[in-house]
Design a protein that fits this description.
This is Nucleotide pyrophosphohydrolase. This protein is an all-alpha fold. The chain has two domains: about 1-50, no CATH class; about 50-85, no CATH class. Helices cover about 75% and strands about 0% of the residues. The longest helix has 18 residues, at about 30-45.
Length: about 90
């Protein structure tokens, strides 16, 4: 339930940033997105889900579906190679 609550808070901040709601200045998009990721990772951990593997698998499917290149795994490999050459 906390994940759903945090997603609602992301929506609230986005509405404020887009001018659809009054900006109260009490929260930041960064903080709310971190909260969403935190709860998603916690739920995955409790349920023994390897998010790294799952995200890369999902991204590969999206790369094929939307003909995008590089996919996330290729991008991460290229980034590692670049860092190793610096």
């Amino acid at each position: 339930m906390k994940l759903v609550e945090e997603i609602g808070e992301v929506a609230e901040v986005l509405n404020q940033l887009e001018g659809r709601k009054e900006n109260t200045g009490n929260t930041s998009l960064e903080n709310e997105l971190v909260d969403v990721i935190h709860y998603a990772v916690a739920i995955a951990s409790i349920n023994h889900i390897d998010l790294t593997t799952s995200i890369i698998k999902k991204d590969k499917q999206a790369a094929i579906k939307y003909n995008q290149s590089p996919n996330l795994e290729e991008f991460l490999d290229e980034s590692k190679d670049h860092e190793n050459h610096i």
